[in-house]
Amino acid sequence: MALALVEHGRTNQLDIERNRLTAHLQASNSLAPVASVYAFLENARDSYRLCSSGACGSRIQRADYQFVVIPGQSTASNGPASDVYHVRCFERILGAQLAQYLEFLLPTNCHSWSERGLLAYESNSSIILDYGATAILEEFKARQGVYTQYTFWREMDDHTTWSLNRISKPTEPAIDPVDNWSIITDYVENGNGLADGLTRWKTAKVSAQTQR
User: Fold this and answer.
1) What is the spatial distance between Cα 57 and Cα 59, in angstroms, rounded to a whole number?
2) 76 and 94 share one domain
């Protein structure tokens, strides 16, 4: 009985958070010709911020992947300018509604730095998303029908796989230390969530770096 009550409380908490987050996204974007709020996938710069999910509340560890929602939901003058979430928590909150907001999920890189509110793009910034995680996010979106800046390269590839050369730009040298991740689809299998793919990718990347 006690466990059932706890589970019921968690479900109610998620419902409340889902309603608040979706209302924030809808209100911020409904009247704007372009989205005025984004959720940026990036590396956590440090470990001082708590996950904005009330059902979680734990700290996001430095260098972990996180979603940063800008602007945040707080209306207080001294409140944070952004909300931060573990990828899994963000995915859990939106649930089945995640597909409706994929176009507002952006990787933090040279193409999104102005929307992110950065004064200037720094390719060596600790928050810049690595190429593998970027491709996983874009492949995840593309599989659900969201056209992204990488969809063209994906469609031109007969094997629907991406390599570092495929997604690198002249202004973005391939700095990722991992060479053997050419089949991004391995990390975005049908039925698996974004958090699962990113976790598997990070594990593989760390393993490859350790072996070098």
Assistant:
1) 7
2) yes
